[in-house]
Amino acid sequence: MSDVKDQVKFLTTIDRREFMGLCAQISVVLGLGNSMVPKIAEALEGAARKPSIIWLHFQECTGDSEAFLRTTSPSVAELVLDILSIDYHETIMAASGDQAEQLLSKTMKENKGKYLVICEGAIPLATPPGPAGLRGGYLTIGNKTGLQIAQEVCADAAAVICVGNCSSYGGVQAQRPNPTGAVGVGEALGIKTVNIPACPHNPVNSIATVVNYLLLGSLPPTDRFGRPLFAYEGRIHDQCTRRSHFDAGQFVTEWGSEEAKKGFCLYKMGCKGPQTYNNCNKARYNDHTGWPIGAGHGCVGCSEPKFWDTMSPFYKRLEGVEVPFGGVESTADKVGLALTGAAAAGAAVHAVYTFNKKKEHEERIIDREKEGK
Amino acid sequence: MVILLEMVKVKTAGVRVLHWVIFLSTVSLVLTGLYIADPFWLSGSGEAYQTFVMAKIRLIHFLSAIALDVAFLMRLYIAFFSIFHTDWREVLPSPGNVEEAWQSFHFYWTLEGEQRERRWIDPFDGITFHLLHLVLLLQLFTGFALYVSGIEMVAGVWGLWAKTLHVATDWTLVVFGGLPGVRLMHHFTLWLVVSGAFLHIYLQIWKTIKLQRADISAIINGYKLMAVKRGK
Ligand code: HEM
Ligand code: HEM
Ligand code: SF4
Ligand code: SF4
Q1: Ligand 1 center–CA A103 separation, angstroms
Q2: Can you count the helices (H) and strands (E) in chain A?
Q3: With the C-alpha atoms ordered A295, A296, A300, A304, is the resulting torsion angle positive or negative?
Q4: Distance, in angstroms, between B202 CA and closest chain A CA?
């Protein structure tokens, strides 16, 4: 193993304090108490059980690797690369070309059935035009399609963890009309994956998932979108720092306004917090210093499947409904008002017509009283 | 044609009260729903704890929703088990009902021929009530899906309530494409409720004036007029 390790560039040691700090942080994210911190440290240090990790890149922007490497007091990246054994990671490993591919097959062979795969990026399934067209051919690495690589590597994995919205659900490249047929890894392979979506994902959550696996030997319980409940059970809106302004009816209506400076609720600016499950309101990004809504921008729902389609336009409250005729994008209100207007117009026409026309069989009504009954 | 009319009892007090509970709660839901969708009246820039506009409007929305749903379920029960008159058959779109409803529709627009006199809900009304009920049911399910989306940490009785709601409403997430779709549907259905209720009210007023059978009085004091004797 040591020759493998030598090839990983970022191997540094960290001091004990930083290490225990990270363990405490993970304990909080997992919802465990202080008493679990030593256990977490033990799990992370237990060299015997240190899993080999293969990090695969597909259609992506490397944002999740960036987030992973650049986070938290002082250097989760160093720590994690030291504690976990990240044996294959195209962006950060020193090896390249054939050497890298050999490393991959070696890691897979040596750790068959035991290694963890972390996926970043979506897998295209469409076939490009042309004679050489090949299913999934919009992404090839070393003459293999992303789909083939994923199938080969994930087949013998102990678990597959998807970080970022792209590998979880397809991300931006799966947005309508999705020219490359991009889908998430779980969907592409028809397997169950643990998904840590967001754009980018919060490394605290992926590390916590790995720790959960090390501690208990199993993956954390997830919701119906494969997201670990410890991180994705709560809605942004319900733990938002601006929630009191929502309840008070204090809303930002213009960027850069006095209300925006006062930190009012961003609901009217299209904030999707009420539709989004994530823990960035609690765990936060960048050394726990900030998160989008804290920084003054509405939530765009980046941890939800197909958020580019379902949450856009990002700066409006509800998406437009596509009206089948004419292909115009209209809003629910326009269609609804048109419908109500049509009902009112129909009633008006009906009233004018029928009140000017006599019934065919006009009735003469005899008063009950007069009849003497 | 000379006819003799008589007041006949058509609706019990319970049905009438429920009707107006449904009416009032729907009006309240539409108004508060529009506010939730676009909070047009903003509170000033004082401290947040001093005003509570959105929270209060949402509370009224939920309370009205509970009132609507309870009244709705009670009305449903009465439709099947009333000791006065069970009327569930009249709102079902059975072939006979559809045909007669179509004849009524024709009559409402041309005033030609005669409409068959009905003591209970006539088939045309019956079908509109059927649709109106489906629309209200849709609001019920999408509304509770939105409601339960904010409940976390499920334990105890509260958890049981949340779990029940999840079982009852999670299908809306699948059908309408997640919470954004459910929200959009809930919002859009407001307009179905508004236009449906508008047509219903228009028709009842029109019938009352044009057909001279005091239809509106049926839902107020329970009696409407029916022909008991016809002559030339
Ligand atoms: C949101 C508004 C309303 C809704 C959702 C609504 C709904 C209903 C429903 C479901 C029924 C049939 C079930 C029953 O007998 O209880 C009904 C009957 C009736 N409603 Fe309404 N209603 C509304 C407003 C009104 C208003 C404002 C009027 C008065 C102008 C009215 C007049 C009537 C009458 C006369 C009937 C009896 C029809 C019959 O038995 O054939 N409704 N309504
Ligand atoms: C006539 C029936 C109803 C109408 C017209 C109505 C209308 C609306 C509208 C327009 C919204 C705003 C949607 C948006 O733009 O985001 C809304 C929100 C909502 N409604 Fe209803 N609604 C009705 C019944 C119900 C029912 C039966 C429930 C059940 C609990 C319910 C629960 C909710 C909830 C939870 C919200 C979201 C509030 C928030 O997240 O702040 N509604 N409603
Ligand atoms: S999820 Fe976001 S950050 Fe991650 S690869 Fe996709 S676009 Fe980039
Ligand atoms: S800013 Fe967004 S998430 Fe926060 S309270 Fe307002 S609507 Fe909810």
Answers
A1: 74
A2: 16, 12
A3: positive
A4: 7
Residue B184 amino acid letter: L
Minimum-distance CB partner of A363 among B1, B50, B180: B1
Q: Residue A364 has what DSSP assignment?
A: E
Q: Please answer whether residues B152 and A238 qualify as being in contact, where contact means their C-beta atoms are separated by less than 8 angstroms.
A: yes
Task: Assign a CATH topology to domain A234-319.
Answer: Cytochrome-c3 Hydrogenase; Chain A, domain 2 (4.10.480)
pLDDT per position as a tens digit, A86-118: 788 888 787 888 888 888 899 899 888 889 999
**DSSP-derived 3-state class of residue A274:** helix
Q: Where are the domains of chain A?
A: 11-232, 234-319, 330-364
CA–CA separation, B19 vs B25, rounded Å? 10
Spatial CB neighbours of B97, under 8 Å, sequence gap ≥ 6: B90, B123, B126, B127
ipTM computed for the complex: 0.85
SS3 A133: coil
- Burial of B24-50, coded b for 16+ CB within 10 Å and e otherwise, reads ebbebbbebbbbbbebeebbeeeebee
C-alpha triplet A320, B131, B190: angle, nearest 5°: 35
Q: Give the closest of B1, B37, B54 to A249, CB-based.
A: B54
Q: Look up the pTM and report it.
A: 0.85
Domains identified in chain B, total number = 1
Q: B193 CB contacts (<8 Å, ≥6 apart)? A: B26, B29, B30, B132, B135, B136, B139
The band of A366, judged by pLDDT with boundaries at 50, 70 and 90, is low
Concatenated DSSP letters for A153-186? HHHT-SEEEEEHHHHHH-GGGGSTT-TT-EE-HH
Residue B112 burial (CB count, 10 A): 11
Report CB contact under 8 Å: A275, B2.
no
Task: Report the amino acid identity of residue A120.
Answer: E
Q: How far apart are CA B204 and CA A293, in angstroms?
A: 50
The candidate with the shortest Cα–Cα distance to A125, out of A179, A172, A192, is A179
Q: What is the CATH number of the domain that holds B13?
A: 1.20.950.20
B199 touches chain A (CB under 8 A): yes
Decide if A11-232 and A234-319 have a common fold.
no
Q: Which two tokens stand for residue B138?
A: 């849709």
Residue B51 DSSP SS3: coil
Give the sign of the dihedral formed by CA B136, CA B138, CA B142, CA B148. positive
Q: How far apart are CA A185 and CA A174, in angstroms?
A: 12
Q: Which architecture does CATH list for A11-232?
A: 3-Layer(aba) Sandwich (3.40)
> Which residue, among B119, B139, B146, B123, has the nearest Cα to B194 in the 3D structure?
B139
pLDDT in tens, A17-45: 777 877 887 788 777 777 888 888 777 77
User: What residues make up the domain containing B186?
Assistant: 2-231
